[in-house]
Amino acid sequence: MEAQNTQLLVLDSSIRNWVLLPIVLFMFLFGILRHYATIALRTTRKNDKAKLEQAQTLARAQTVRTNANWIPHEAFLERKAFFNQPETGVLNKKIPANTLASMADPNNMVDMMKTNFATIVPNIVMWGWVSYFFSGFVIAKFPFPLTGRFRGMVQRGIELNSLDVSYVTSASMYFLILFGLRGLFSLVLGEANAADDAQLMQQQMMGPAAAMAGPGVDMGKLFEAERDNLELVTHESKLKEAETTLLNSSQ
């Protein structure tokens, strides 16, 4: 019943030339500007050798635990003893917590403010620019049908129930372009660029070595937790039947 009440539109090519392309071009150029502005605001610090060593040790222990079944049993026991030996194991080292010292460092707050400034302010500027100049435009149509539940997602700024859900407004296209430019930014600026919000979030959650070397992290508790996790691993080698599997696959 909904498909019978929808209204079909013929999109003028001028909308593509004077609305869609300017939005894409503006967001691309603004992303490049944000990338270099973030680099200029970034504070260069000397790495703490002790923290990096602790983070790398923890990452190695996690790698052994994750891939334990892909190494021989004797090799796993040797690595487990290296990390969990009661007196000499590297995960049994006593590491004093220094969370208060890192919280008292004003540079941490400054870096956080710079990151928020480089992430939030450009999005507010771009969204305000698109909303002010191009609000209410229908600029594209999906080549596939959508249900009515997607109307609020793809038709922001227009409240018209008779319009087919497959039509997209400029406000909704902004978010699609924001994520669609990720590949272009990676091609122009490289993989580790500051023009992509999702890339920045991924870098912050990229793994234990990147997150655990930061300030305010209690490495002693992380060592203790990883030591307990390594003790719970039950080694079941997946290489026992490797020769037989390889010969059967080659026949």
Automatic annotation (TrEMBL):
Keywords, sorted A to Z: Membrane, Transmembrane, Transmembrane helix
Transmembrane region(s): 18-37, 117-140, 173-195
Annotated compartments: Membrane
Any Gene Ontology CC annotation: EMC complex
Topology of this chain in the membrane: Multi-pass membrane protein
GO BP field: protein folding in endoplasmic reticulum
Protein name, UniProt field: ER membrane protein complex subunit 3
